[in-house]
Amino acid sequence: MGEVALVGALSGESVMLRPVVADDVPVLVHIMSTPEVRQWWDAADLVDDWPLADSSATRLTIVTGRRIAGMIQYWENEDPRDRHAGIEIFIDPDLHGRGLGRDAIRTLARYLFDQLGHHRLVIDPAATNETAIRCCAAVGFRPVGMMHGRERHTSSVRDGMVMDLLSTELR
Ligand SMILES: CC(C)(COP(=O)(O)OP(=O)(O)OC[C@H]1O[C@@H](n2cnc3c(N)ncnc32)[C@H](O)[C@@H]1OP(=O)(O)O)[C@@H](O)C(=O)NCCC(=O)NCCS
């Protein structure tokens, strides 16, 4: 998982996705530390050497113009009967609501379908994360089920909304 080399950058409409490099990390940590992102993203991820020492996912910096806008990551399940990939994303709150989230998800989804040969992708935002659910739906993800008690966040446990996208459904 997470070992596929990404040759070059992926271009979307207004974003470019490229592998995270050490120089990106301070900005990404800053974005991850904002309340708007932390409420949905596990702060336990913020360990020393994050994210370069963690190979559980492949991480791409989202760039718009000359600015780092956030990060998008994917992991792959290589079981031949159930081969699929999953996506997670965060965007700088200063840039929310401009379509960058859906652009980044669409761009990565196209890469996972066309270049890595996946036919199905999943994403599982918290069930109360209406912004993420709407952003994913705009790209074609459909809610397919609720995972009760999906994630532990600070002192509570909350449900997750499983959404999936087949290659024929990407918008
Ligand atoms: C989810 C996230 C990546 C979306 O990024 P973005 O660049 O703002 O996304 P977009 O601009 O492409 O789309 C956002 C959509 O949510 C809608 N939205 C914004 N606030 C909303 C709210 N409070 N309730 C419902 N929808 C909302 C916007 O109107 C827009 O939909 P529309 O264009 O159909 O009107 C960003 O909000 C984020 O980083 N959140 C924190 C981390 C997170 O939640 N990650 C997802 C975990 S998988």
Please provide a written account of the structure:
The protein is of the alpha+beta class. It has a domain at 10-122: Aminopeptidase. The chain is 22% helix and 35% strand. It is built from 4 helices and 8 strands; from the N terminus they run ββααβββαβαββ. It has helices at 25-32, 35-38, 100-114, 130-139, and strands at residues 10-11, 16-19, 58-64, 67-77, 84-91, 120-123, 142-153, 156-166. It has an 8-stranded mixed beta sheet with strand order 1-2-3-4-5-6-8-7, sandwiched between helices. The longest helix is centred in the middle third of the chain and has 15 residues, at 100-114. It starts with 9 loop residues before the first strand and ends in a 5-residue tail after the last strand. Coenzyme A binds next to helix 2, strand 5, helix 3 and helix 4.
| Rg over alpha carbons | 15 Å
Side by side, the strands of the main sheet go 1-2-3-4-5-6-8-7
- The parts where pLDDT drops under 50 for at least 5 residues are 1-6
| Mean of all residue-level pLDDT scores | 92
Helix content: 10-25%
Beta-strand residue fraction: 25-35%
End-to-end C-alpha gap: 26 Å
The number of E-state strands comes to 8
Order of SSEs: EEHHEEEHEHEE
- Category from helices, strands and their pairing: alpha+beta
For the report, how would you describe the main beta sheet?
A: 8 strands, mixed
Ligands present: coenzyme A
Shape by Cα distribution: globular
What name is given to the CATH topology of the domain at 10-122? Answer: Aminopeptidase
What is the CATH first-level class name of the domain at 10-122?
Answer: Alpha Beta
CATH superfamily of the domain at 10-122: Gcn5-related N-acetyltransferase (GNAT)
**CATH architecture call of the domain at 10-122:** 3-Layer(aba) Sandwich
Number of helices: 4
